[in-house]
Amino acid sequence: MVGESSSNVDSLKSSNKKSKDVYIAVQLSIVIVFLAIMSKFFVIINAGERGVMMQFGQVQDQVLGEGIHVIVPIVDTVKKLSVRVQKQESSAEASSKDLQDVFTDVALNWHIIPEEANAIFQQIGDEKQVVDCIIAPAVEEVLKAVMAKYTAEEIITKRGEVKAEVDNFLTLRLVTYHIAVDDISLVHVHFSERFSDAVEAKQIAEQEAKKGEFLALKAAKEAEAKVNLAKGEAEVQRLLRNNLTPELLQRQAIEKWNGKLPLIVGDGGKNLLDVKKLLNSGN
């Protein structure tokens, strides 16, 4: 009897525990279902996003900002769009004013205008559709239009001007689609291999021409220097001839005389030169 009573008690405790576990599980289920139902009445818009409010699929004028918002389930639905700056890289081929092929790699920073998120979703769609349908074609078209205004050489030498014009045209083009341009970079601009070879040949020719001009100028300067030197020497000789008088020659001879009488060799043998006679003959 005692064993049977103990078994009944254990069975009762086990049954109570199972009932308690079931009760807790049911409570948790009710809470989860309640929270799930309540979550349908709220929507959270995260940082850098905007919510497009729709009633039965119709886009409303109201744009939901960051934070928590109350909505009516089934009636209201919200589409979240990012309004942060996004980067789009693309490549485009165009022709310059002088009909050279121009290949350009472009990096565009853009974002959806927050206040117009509902309009862009209604007219275009989400971010992917914006890139595919609007941004990529606009970049290609603007690049073709701008590059056609410059020669290939100008595209290189006036790169800042070309970039500013592309930026301006693209900004005006995309703002009509509720897209703001933050910055655009012409990452890489290159031409056909044939044109690159022609540019290199032209640079070599210009360098050779400049070298030839330098050598010609150098030769002209050297010739001019020689002419001036010759003129200077001729002028010195002229001045010497004009200033050399018998008295000056006689004095220079005396100043350079070392005191030794010169010998004159003739038929009569060696004779001494009479200095007095030499001086008197000068007078």
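(the above was protein one; protein two follows)
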Amino acid sequence: MAQKPTLEFRAEAVRVALTSGLPRKQVAADFGIGFSKVSRWIQQDRRNPEKPTVQSDLEREVAELRKENRMLREEREVLKKATSSVNRLCEIMGVSPRGYRAWRSRPACRRQRTDMVLLAHIREQFRLSLGSYGRPRMIEELKELGFDVEHRRIGRFMRQNSITVRRNKKFKATTDSNHRFNIAPNLLNRDFHADESNQKWAGDISYVWTREGWLYLAGILDLHSRRVIGLAVSNRMKRDLAIRALHIALALRRPPTGCIHHTDRGSQYCSHDYQKLLRQHGFRVSMSGTGICYNSAAVEAYFKTIKAELLWQRSWPTRRAAELAIFEYINGSYNPQRRHSALGWKSPLAFERKAA
């Protein structure tokens, strides 16, 4: 049975439909609901403009405090009843009250103390990874800290303590292949391995929804270390967005002649200005086939990571707030800390230092 949409979900869908300028069919597809349902919600909101669709922050906070207060009262009552029934429970279980009290006051054994220390490190690493590390990456972090751990043990700790990675999914098309610009062949041919830095670059454009509208981000990766070397954001998906990201990557790396630059066939990357800049710096231009996302799998995986670990975890009130969070995530977590399976569970910066 499908879960009933929450008031927050409904309000966000109506807000996007009324303010984003996108067709209602596109909005319905992005949110995974029917076109008729979006239209009905909009009509209901227009008929009842005074009735709020979402509780205010103050109302939600009051409701949460009341719930917490009720739970504390219930726990206190349970403890009062439990104290009077300890003797009866000991009688039923066939143990003495004195032995029960001795067991309660007995210090934790060595195994229990080790488990508590390990759990504290798991919680800390999960917090530092912004809630993105599952069992494989968590094990690599713990091994680097000096723990001799097993997959099943770490999986059990994380499961018992509700340490789980959250994932969401939204979609919006960003590639405009309907243009008359020249198309380059696919030189990369799904070979995302590079022996050293500045051999192969890959770029793409993605997006995030804010209450001010869409925010688009263009990124460029060095496929040797999967490091983000170029990043730019804008409220418009024009060629200047891609050009700014390329300028940043060029200023950081100054690649030699012959470096492969791979993108999709979007009009931003096929434009005369962008291609002119690539020729000036001696790039070998490579482009994916139409509608074949596997040809840009490395950069697609990067955008999926930043969306799942950051952008989908909260709503963004302004484009500026999302922009600051994105740059903080890239420079503070993704490049220097986040472990990649393709790099032998090392971070991009650690992999580059080892290669050097």
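Reviewer note on protein two: The first strand starts at residue 200 and ends at 210.
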